[in-house]
Amino acid sequence: MKIKILTISVLLSMISTMAFTTSYGQSFTPKQTSQLSGTVVDMNESRVSDAAVTVEGEGLTRTVATSEDGIYKINLPVGTYRIKVARTGFCPAHRAPFGMLTLSSIILNFTLIPCPIVNEITIKNGQYVGEKDRYKDPFKEEVFPLVHSTGRPLELLVRYGSRQEDQNIIEYRGTVVPYEAHVDTPRGSAHRDKYLGVTLSYNLLTIRADKVRLDSTTFRLEAEGNVVVEDGKRSDKGRRVFADLKTYEPRVELIQ
């Protein structure tokens, strides 16, 4: 019996070695991964559970659901990815592509806003063509492609309510978003409005503020009013922020 156990142990060891060796005798090392995680909340800071978080890039697509406390976690190999979050009753949320260049833990948080669905009917030459439902997102988007010395194509994504442009300086502002608030009344709810500011995302950087001024040639920006800055590691609040987006890892100065 001892001889049989020893034989099986040796065979298992040989099979394990062969599984991680190529036909050329080179050892194979499984691809290491980093952890992407974050919290999904609504505009009143309440956690959103069962939201679908989808990450795409490097030839893979992965989707997970947020837990009861609004948290998601995904393991990813080094690369550049896009991410989106979807939940019934909310506008689909996404951000600019981000890079995971080193094996580390990255945090990307999302705030979902209420989003009614409208039915669009298409009529052409007086004839009914078809119809489709779409989300009525109160925000517009502007994308600026950026390529740095790393050779990795990235984007600056701006979500805003209104904009004004004077030569190369663009001033963005947010918009008022209506929502149903839970209140102690017979109906149990009431209509409320809340001003939501501008959101900029670039690589791992996310900036939220009431107003943003961006130089579209130098990609330097100034944001003020209820400023929140997240860099993939931590979240800080302040009154004003200055940022230079000409580098792969932006230089940011936050005034608290």
Tell me roughly what share of residues is in helical segments.
under 10%
Reading the helices and strands in chain order gives HEEEEEEEEEEEEEEEEEEEEEEE
Integer average pLDDT:
84
CATH class of the largest domain: Mainly Beta
Number of domain modules: 2
CATH architecture classification of the largest domain: Sandwich
Instruction: Please mark out the parts with pLDDT under 50 across 5 or more consecutive residues, or reply none.
Output: 1-29
Describe the structure concisely for a colleague:
The protein has 256 residues and is mostly beta strands. The protein has two domains: 101 residues, Carboxypeptidase-like, regulatory domain (Immunoglobulin-like), CATH 2.60.40.1120; 119 residues, Sandwich (lipopolysaccharide transport protein A fold).
What's the topology here?
Layout lengths: L1 H18 L14 E9 L9 E6 L2 E6 L5 E6 L2 E8 L6 E2 L3 E3 L4 E3 L2 E3 L4 E8 L2 E9 L4 E8 L5 E8 L1 E5 L2 E5 L1 E8 L6 E8 L1 E5 L2 E5 L1 E5 L4 E11 L4 E10 L6 E5 L1
Parallel strand pairs: 1-8, 1-9
Antiparallel strand pairs: 1-4, 2-3, 2-5, 5-6, 5-7, 10-11, 12-13, 13-18, 14-15, 15-20, 16-17, 18-19, 19-21, 20-21, 21-22, 22-23
